[in-house]
Amino acid sequence: MTNTDPEDPENARKLIAHTLTQYVSATSKEHGQIAMSIVVPTLLSRATSEGPEIYKETSSRLLELASVDQVAFKGIVAAMSEGQKAFMEEVLRSGRQAGGADRDNANAGQPSITLKMDFGGN
Predict the structure, then answer these.
(1) What distance lies between CA 38 and its chain's CA centroid?
(2) 93 φ, ψ to 5°?
(3) In the chain, how many domains are there?
């Protein structure tokens, strides 16, 4: 998923990202935390490699993971460097901006989560 050199005409990387995110939510809480600690950096690595065109997708996956186990997600974010936190915040903000009208129509009546964007250690 993170090797973005080869072309991906069938969107395999997108499908793998979705599958890994779903796997985290389907495992036990203990194993889910371990899986999440691998999946979050993998998603961010892919976003770094492919650039802003996949931020919306990456943002959606990160928010899905945060909704699975907020405590585990917060712990993973707390362990990140300041640069990693800033990049993740950029991905989440870009994804929210890119999804604006689409999200409003697609999620009508759906529950949503709000993620506080302050990832500082204070």
Answers:
(1) 12
(2) -65, -45
(3) 1
44 and 58 Cβ atoms separated by less than 8 Å: yes
Nearest CA to 59 out of 23, 88, 22 is that of 88
- Count of residues for the chain? 122
Please state the rounded mean pLDDT for residues 96-110: 56
Cβ burial of 72 (10 Å; 0-12, 13-18, 19+) is buried
CA distances to 2, 58, 68, 95 from 53, rounded to whole Å, are 15, 10, 25, 9
Q: Is the pTM of this model over 0.70?
A: yes
Nearest to 17 by CA among 74, 95, 115, 77: 95
Give a yes or no: residue 26 inside a domain: yes
Cα 52 from Cα 30, distance rounded (Å):
32
> Would 59 be classed as within a structural domain?
yes
Give percent above pLDDT 70 in the chain: 80
